[in-house]
Amino acid sequence: MKKTLLSIFGALAVSSAVGQASVDWATTQNAAWPKVSMGVRIMSAVNANVLWATGYDGTTGNVSRNYSYFTRTINVGSTYTSGIIYQSATTPLIGDTSTYNIASF
Prior knowledge:
Layout: H1 2-18, E1 38-45, E2 51-57, E3 66-73, E4 81-88
Antiparallel strand pairs: 1-2, 2-3, 3-4
């Protein structure tokens, strides 16, 4: 009985130690989105220093406008640069060239 309990507590101790998030991973960073209620649509890590992400306006009742934004960092998240990709009354996604005029960029 003692060996079984010792084995169970040992397994729990090891699994809880392994399951801890590293400090670097858990750091909160500001993506510099221009609105308070934003959602991430696509995120792409280019390398250890550069990250690009696209986002959307998540404001409740946002039915008359569809904004798509981007943000990027080139210094491991110390600073972010963001901007608007396009604004449309329809609901296009990035790569959907049939619903809007590319020349309007």
